[in-house]
Amino acid sequence: MKTYNIAVMGGDGTGPEVTVEAVKVLKTAASKCGFKVNLTDFDFGGERYKRTGETLPDSAIEEFRKFDAILLGAIGHPDVKPGILEKGILLKARFALDQYINLRPVRLYPGVECPLKDKGPKEIDYVVVRENSGDAYTGTGGITLKGTPNEVAVQSMVYNRFQVDRCLKYAFEYARKNGKKARGVGSENTLGLVGKTNVLTFVYDLWERAFHEMGQKEYPDIRRDYYHVDATCMWMVKSPEWFDVLVTGNLFGDIITDLGAITQGGMGIAAGGNINPNGVSMFEPIGGSAPKYTGMGVINPLAAICAAQMMLETLGEETAAKKIDTAVRFVTANKMKSMAAGKMGFSTSQVGDLVAAEVAK
Ligand code: IPM
Ligand code: MN
Hints:
The protein is of the alpha/beta class. The chain folds into 2 domains: 1-109 and 268-361, Isopropylmalate Dehydrogenase (3-Layer(aba) Sandwich), CATH 3.40.718.10; 115-263, 3-Layer(aba) Sandwich (Isopropylmalate Dehydrogenase), CATH 3.40.718. Helices cover 41% and strands 19% of the residues. The strands form 2 sheets. The protein has a 10-stranded mixed β-sheet, with helices on both faces. A two-stranded antiparallel ribbon has the order 6-7. Helix 1 (15-33) crosses helix 10, helix 5 crosses helix 6 (203-218) and helix 7 runs parallel beside helix 8 (250-263). Bound molecules: 3-isopropylmalic acid (IPM) and manganese (II) ion.
């Protein structure tokens, strides 16, 4: 029987609670669809950092390389200065394992309350391909004359052609396979580049040239659009139905996907995948560690469950992934009162049970 070795890093706050539910659903899907998941827990996170001073050691990265995928809960601890765990664990894993794609679907599930007027699941159904290895995240820059009135701080937006091309290739392929035409909900597959070519005339000029060159040569079947990032924020609220697959740099991708998440019902439901198409990928709910809800059994586990769903899709277990998607849709449409912590009408583990029961049918 096919067996997948999965590293599970529950992390901080409510991370471990939601991860338990994701694992529950994962195991149910596996036994239903005829494969096995072999899980190994890792305790990296704020508590371990406080005890040992260790974030994510190089030895853990080497260990992770042996797995088929990583499931992450959340990183962020109220007693630890912001940046230490985020950089030391989350960004370290993304960079060291070269997870150069951050795939973030913006999908409103049936029955989920949407803050946008007159928009439903049909209108809010697109995917952001966020480049995950470059940009202002590379740490290029520095501070001089620190503490003086003339202090200078520089943090550069850095991209090379190789990074841009590999990300665009992934995005075009993704659009061809999963775009609105491919899914039978539209008349064409569209890839939209989100940039800022009117001001960032170096970095997004590179992106724009690479985008049209690759599109013209290799993907003439895919419609190409371009949007400035500020306008994108406006259209994400006003006309999200315009979008199919969007591709953008790391920083813009970070920002617009939080906006996307709130339009799909909030952090309780938004999931993402840090993908290395040729290596080990890591899947996570994109909400944080929600310290104030820790241990109360009230946090929404659906984002973590959807992260597990994306993991199966990426591993090629499409039937199992589809089953989880259908189950989540059933539960949001027919069972849950709200996506918000404490207002779901069910506890964290009950929501996990509801989804697992549907998957098992
Ligand atoms: C995200 C987060 C991270 C990021 C932080 C926690 C480093 O906001 O996954 O979107 O900026 O990528
Ligand atoms: Mn973010």
